[in-house]
Amino acid sequence: MHGFFSMMDSREVRDALHVPDDYGLSEAFKDMAAWLGQWELRGTGHWALEEKNSGRFVGRAGLHQPERHDWPGVEVGWALHPDFWRHGYATEAGAAAVSYGFEQLGAGKLFSCILAENHRSQAVAKRLGFEFMEERILEFFPKLPHQIWKLNRD
Predict the structure, then answer these.
(1) How many C-beta atoms lie closer than 10 Å to residue 16's C-beta?
(2) Do residues 31 and 45 lie in contact, with contact meaning Cβ atoms separated by under 8 Å?
(3) Does the pLDDT at position 1 exceed 80?
(4) Which of 47, 48, 68, 111 has the fewest CB atoms within 10 Å of its CB?
(5) pLDDT digit string (tens) for 3-43?
(6) Beta carbons within 8 Å of 11's beta carbon, 6+ residues apart
(7) pLDDT (tens digit per residue) in 69-107
(8) What is the CATH number of the domain that holds 130?
(9) CB atoms near residue 95 (< 10 Å)
(10) Helix%, strand%, coil% for the chain, nearest 5
(11) How far apart are CA 90 and CA 37, in angstroms?
(12) Are 146 and 115 in contact (CB under 8 A)?
């Protein structure tokens, strides 16, 4: 729990994800409970990522399928603590999520919704084989546009 909050509370993650200033331990707990609930209800969610050697919390990654009318479909996503950026963990975890989405869920296509200003995550999406599809405003976050990236099963 505290590793997750530490990641979400880091200045870099706050800036990249536009985490509100009042985000605290209570909100982190609710987010973790929501991921667990999504696993139970849909078979999608994010995994907690740990560094193999140390067991330290690295971040979260996996599949996301929220109940939003303008959401494109099953999303592959990730967020890592800045201490673990530039080590290939996002790409490794994203590849595991892609595999799970196609092999376990049987999805025909997967998406990644990335803020247009988030060049690091766009680079990860490209490494995973995603292709840029479109840029648009999503209802849950009307302040800035998201880029929608798509990966077909075939």
Answers:
(1) 20
(2) no
(3) no
(4) 68
(5) 999 999 999 999 999 999 999 999 999 999 999 999 999 99
(6) none
(7) 999 999 999 999 999 999 999 999 999 999 999 999 999
(8) 3.40.630.30
(9) 17
(10) 40, 30, 30
(11) 23
(12) yes
The residue type of 63 is L
Contact present, 35 and 60 (Cβ < 8 Å): yes
* Tokens 């997967």, located at residue: 110
Give the residue numbers spanning the domain of 17.
2-152
Q: How many CA atoms lie within 13 A of 148 on its CB side?
A: 14
Tell me, yes or no, if the pTM score tops 0.90.
yes
- Rounded Cα distance, 140 and 34, in Å: 16
Q: Are strands 109-115 and 131-138 parallel, antiparallel or unpaired?
A: unpaired
Q: Whole-angstrom Cα distance, residue 19 to residue 11?
A: 9
The CA distance from 62 to 9, in Å, is: 20
Output phi, psi for 81, to 5 deg: -65, 140
The number of domains in the chain is 1
Q: Please report where in the chains the tokens 């479909």 appear, as a residue.
A: 73
